Description:
The chain is mostly helical. The protein contains 2 helices and no strands. α1 (2-25) runs antiparallel to α2 (29-45). The longest helix has 24 residues, at 2-25. The N and C termini lie close together (9 Å). Keywords: Membrane, Transmembrane, Transmembrane helix. It comes from Metabacillus malikii. This is DUF3953 domain-containing protein. The chain crosses the membrane at residues 30-49.
Amino acid sequence: MKLLLWAIVLIGTLYSFGHAYVLMKDKNKLGAFGMSIVGCSIFILSFLVQMK
Length: 52
């Protein structure tokens, strides 16, 4: 179950940073910054989740 959690967290984090990269290439720096914050929060908040 923990492996599934980490896979979801990793996919979500990589997707948000990839989307931020695309937004940065489109000259949307505010959107890229927001997506980077989302990616960081997904990664950091996943440590607070406790699996039973």
